[in-house]
Amino acid sequence: MNIENFLKEKITSAIQVIFDFEPENNMLQFQQTRKEFEGDITFVVFPIVRYTQKSPEDTARMIGEYLVTDEGIIEKFNVVKGFLNLTITISWWINNLKEAFKNERYGLKEATEDSELVMIEYSSPNTNKPLHLGHIRNNLLGFSLAEILKGNGKRVVKTNIVNDRGIHICKSMYAWQQWGEGRTPESTGIKGDHLVGDFYVMFDKQYKKEIAELVAKGFSEQEAENCALSILAVRELLRKWEAGHKGTVELWKMMNGWVYDGFNVTYRNLGVDFDKIYYESETYLSGKEEVLRGLKEGIFYQKDDSSIWADLTSEGLDHKLLLRSDGTSVYMTQDIGTAKMRFNDYPIDKMVYVVGNEQNYHFQVLAILLDMLGYDWGRELYHFSYGMVELPTGKMKSREGTVVDADDLIAEMIEVARKMGEELGKLEGLSEEEAERTYKIIALGALKYFILKVDPRKNMTFDPKESIDFNGNTGPFIQYTHARIRSVLRKAIDANINISADFNGIKTVEEKERELLKTISLFPETVEEAAMEYSPAVLANYCYELTKHFNQFYHEHSILNEPDLDKRNFRLVLSDVVSEILRNGMGMLGIELPERM
RNA sequence: GCCCUGAUAGCUCAAUUGGAUAGAGCAACGGCCUUCUAAGCCGUAGGUUAUGGGUUCGAGUCCCGUUCAGGGUACCA
Question: Which nucleotides of B are covered by protein (CB under 7 A)?
Answer without folding.
Answer: 4-7, 11-17, 19-21, 24-27, 35-42, 57-58, 70-77
